Amino acid sequence: MIKKEMIAMLLAGGQGSRLGILTAKMAKPAVSFGGKYRIIDFPLSNCINSGVDTVGVLTQYQPLRLNTHIGIGIPWDLDKNVGGVTILPPYEKSENSEWYTGTANAIYQNLDYMETFHPDYVLILSGDHIYKMDYETMLDFHKEKGADVTIAVMPVPMEEAKRFGIMITDDDHKITDFEEKPENPRSNLASMGIYIFSWEALKSALIENATQPGLDFGKHVIPYCRDKGKPLYAYEFNGYWKDVGTLTSYWEANMELIDIVPDFNLYEEYWKIYTRNTALPPQYLGTNSEVERSIIGEGCEIYGAVYNSVIGCGVTIGEGTVIRDSIIMNNCVIGSNCDLEKVIMAEDSVVGNGCRIGEGEERENETAPSIYRDGLVVIGEKSKVPDQISAGKNVLISGNTVAEDYPNGRLESGKSLVKAGEAR
Hints:
This protein has about 425 residues and is of the alpha/beta class. The longest helix has 11 residues, at about 135-145.
């Protein structure tokens, strides 16, 4: 009989609609981050660094990129005969087939998978946060308290507490009450969406609540456990943790990586972040190139200047081009004599020669002002921007655009230009 003390279930099916065009063709956990990584690398690396060697990854929305990236789990040492990593998409059943309708419903539909490992504990994770956490320390806390449910919490400023699920605890960290996005919070301990359940408690809660529409941990499973008198505890985490759910927070988290002393350090020997690597040549910096406070991925050719930016792998930046405060993802090509400021450029995109992107006054975006904001310019995956055009701030460009799409050679601030077709 296979027996695992703790297995992890990683929820990676989210669309991440607040990331706009970046998640048009991929799930949020598959989005590039920090140059060479993808968001899902962080919880997966946490698992292997914490000694958790059995991980079920629950996918749903646009899973192809995610599935390809994870493969059989080799980069994370999760290619095992027993356990390892398993992709768990929704599947056709003999009756009432359904998509995953909520976080806990996704877990419920995979009870058989979990049962095969006879776990004592199940760790529930979200696939779209950037952080380093030793889940083994959290498990020790769970055991020490005799908990059935342990919820990882993080202290947040009191004025921000209304944005989160908030836990109220006693002096022993036992959860006495919780509130979902309270108007007048009674505590500043915000749930991180990371849970450890004792297996029997989780199983019975899922089965009892199986018919709840949109079965969810925060709304259904945890209140059920509390009402049944199960001991619930809050495990306080004080490290770096970032929800990169909006374009602005995604951009900020990338920019924080290049601080002189970064809050989130990618270079620690004892807690490595693993990812799927392709064999690429080293970076090449041309004679007139200049790079300051930036991350430059493998296989890049830099002939221009890069300041305060995160550059992915296999990127080419032409001579005379200046890039500031930007995120340029893998395999992009930027021509010569360009000026890019606060640009997020998705993978496999091309910007022609002599372009000026991210200049002028800010105006509210016309199609999605809550997404494309804070002066950012977003260029979608496999897009093409022709030579000699300029674009303002809070702009979206996507698709195979041509000179005629830019009146007088310019896309004004706040405009969205979305065309069919991809750059070849």
